[in-house]
Specification:
With about 260 residues, the protein is of the alpha/beta class. The protein contains 9 helices and 9 strands. Helix 1 (about 15-25) runs parallel beside helix 8 (about 200-220).
């Protein structure tokens, strides 16, 4: 299949993993659309949503700060385990002769035109912000996303955290993107087991990794996106729209998670 993959920044590990694993399975990655994190609009929005602590966390990812082997994140360990040594999407695209397009917004005319030119069989969303109807329509409504929570129960941001806090079993959901927030047809669901010593960060990483593996499994041997089995109804259940978790609520969650693991 001819695919387009989106990313929220050049060092996105899930996007990089999808690019390489799907290439290995025989798919043609036509274009990688990367949203620049340095636009004033995006920085203001990030500051408003996450505060300075959130900005610092994002900055560490963007700068690809080096850590010792013992401190490598599960996502980075996953890349190493899969033999993926590229430092960035730009580097991967250069080696594999794939179009790398940097845009300020996935809904911009530059982004829309690149999708038109690529004319992909499907788009795999691995970050980059909320998609508007123009982008969805030019993609012929064939956009697949991995959501780090159970759908339709938990939609939106920090889905792993809200799932635990609200009493749902941590899981990921592969679904189609439509005009709503995580309201598209569901393709598959997969549980995320909680082990000893888990933290919010390790569970988030496990959700990302699980989503990458599930997408690559679903696309293995796939020649037409319409061949994926998708639900036709959610029985009217829209679920809860969640937002970025406040620090105080996150602290309560950490305490709950610690208590859960000690039971």
């Amino acid at each position: 299949m001819k695919l387009v993959i989106t990313a929220g920044f050049d060092g996105s590990i899930p996007a990089l993993a999808l690019c390489e694993l799907l290439r290995r399975s025989g798919h043609c990655i036509e274009t990688v659309l990367v949203v620049t994190p340095y636009s004033p609009t995006r920085l203001k929005k990030m500051l408003r949503q996450r505060g300075m602590q959130g900005i610092k966390k994002v900055a560490s990812k963007l700068l690809n700060l080096k850590k010792s082997g013992a401190e490598l994140s599960l996502q980075t360990q996953f890349l190493i385990h899969k033999g993926i040594s590229y430092s960035s999407l730009k580097a991967w695209c250069k080696v594999n002769e794939v179009k790398y397009i940097l845009v300020g917004n996935l809904n911009s005319s530059k982004s829309i035109n690149s999708v038109k030119q690529s004319n992909p069989d499907a788009i795999l969303y691995a970050g980059g912000g909320i998609l508007r109807s123009t982008f969805i329509e030019v993609a012929n409504h064939k956009i697949v996303n991995s959501h780090s929570g159970p759908l339709p129960e938990i939609r939106g941001m920090n889905a792993v955290e809200w799932s635990i806090l609200l009493g749902y079993e941590p899981s990921i959901t592969i679904h189609m993107i439509d005009r709503g927030i995580d309201t598209g047809k569901i393709i598959s669901r997969k549980r995320i087991p909680i082990g000893k010593g888990e933290t919010i960060e390790t569970l988030r990483d496990k959700a990302v990794i699980s989503g990458v593996l599930e997408v690559t499994r679903l696309f293995d041997g796939l020649t037409d996106l319409d061949d994926l089995n998708k639900e036709t109804s959610r029985d009217g259940l829209v679920g809860r729209q969640c937002y970025i978790m406040a620090p105080a609520v996150r602290e309560l969650l950490s305490n709950k998670l610690e208590g859960f693991l000690n039971d």
